[in-house]
Sequence to fold (165 residues):
Amino acid sequence: MFTVGVLTVSDRVSRGEAEDRSGPLLVRLVEERLGWRVVQRAVVPDEAARIREVLLRWSDEEGLALILTTGGTGFAPRDVTPEATRQVIEREAPGLVEAMRSASLQVTPHAMLSRAVAGIRGRTLIVNMPGSPKAVEEQFLVILPALPHGVALLRDVPRENTRHG
Fold:
């Protein structure tokens, strides 16, 4: 079983002005669909330094296998999650984002406005997801079949020791 962190990036949620609906949804999806443990959860404002700080701590110090971010991937001036993610990853994983965007384009033309990034830092996979709960669920289900194998490769774990339901 792999360990996971879910990071919600939102000014409004971090100030207590809005409810975080996407973060808890991701926790539920990870635990129910993958059987993995979400051991870290956080909410930060749309500030690159704060996003980087969490991504670095969770990957380098906590050694999480997977970090899913939600929010901050659009065109708004304060949407900086992709930039912060690019500053910490060592290798990009564009296929995940291409698959997510392609699937979402079947639902809405607004999907082409997503600037999400996915990549690898050490042995941690980091994937940016949108802030909308509907889009989060759609996109998570798209990458779900690839996550166990991808994370197992990063962790050097034989495929039969991963779980995906």
Residues 82 and 117 are 5 Å apart (CA to CA).
